[in-house]
Amino acid sequence: MSEKKKFVIYNPLSLHYYSDYGIGIPMLNERVEKPFAHIQDKFQIEATEEKLFSRYGKEILPLAHDPDYCERVEKHPEQVVMDTYELVKKDGSYNRYEPSQAIKPLGDFIQKALGHVNGTILACENALENGFCYHLGGGMHHAMSFKPGGFCMFNDMVLAIRLLQREGKIKRAVIIDMDAHKGDGTAQIVAGDSTIRAFSIHMKEGWPLDNEDHSDPSFTPSDRDVGVLREDNYLEIFAREIHDFNPCEDLAIVVHGADVYEKDELESANLIQLSKEEVLKRDQFIYHYLKERNIPQAWVMAGGYGRYVHEVFTQFLDYALEKEVPSTRD
Fold this sequence. Notes:
By secondary structure, this protein is α/β, with parallel strands linked by helices. It has helices spanning 30-43, 67-75, 77-84, 108-130, 156-166, 184-190, 234-245, 276-292, 310-324; strands spanning 8-9, 132-135, 173-177, 196-203, 224-228, 251-255, 297-300.
């Protein structure tokens, strides 16, 4: 395989061993480790050079985040982490958090999140060269301009796109979000930005759309919001809506939500329950849709929780790399 072409971005240092921090979230590192081990063996994929995940630091956060939030990150990192992972309830009690069990400081997550941002930037750069690249990380689509939330600290997709725009590598980009939950942070940040379009297909009901106050920022409309119910024909609706939306930008970031899988273990994602075969059809559809239109595509991982979710990522990577890697081997 040509050294210039990299189809997978992987950084083991970005993995979150949540129990080390006293956090009880069912996002398991095996969702990254198992797909990578599989493709490493089958396609001779190597881990990305470690230093590349620190190319950009906090200095790029203002591309997507407000000065007040950037200041909080700098001065109150542990509070930002607690807000990100929703570790404190409104009554002040802990939520999925046992600080007495922690052996590492919460502030570690700032650098881990920046590593994810760098990974998505790398994936976008490689997608512009190769047509396709997959980041085994990222997808922090609930991070808004002024706050974190929904396990998302910094909006890596918007940061990556705006950095590439600043460098003159692209003019327009589209974010196609297939997570079970609406990409509300992305919608809020890019509202009014005609150079970045956001498409989100998600649960019509449930979090983050279960707030009775419709003035809440989570209700900020994407350029196209597609809400689906469990009984709907997801694949038919997705195909119809994406054709009507008609992506035609210089770059597409695909938010590869695996929490639509029927075996996902996060309760707030259970209003969409696709079989493994249906999820693969979804992924194959958008992969070929973008290929046929010569739109470079960078994929990021997004939601996916529990013991079986790695199956979603593995099956798609297996499929896509079968298409991509053999054609570049010497």
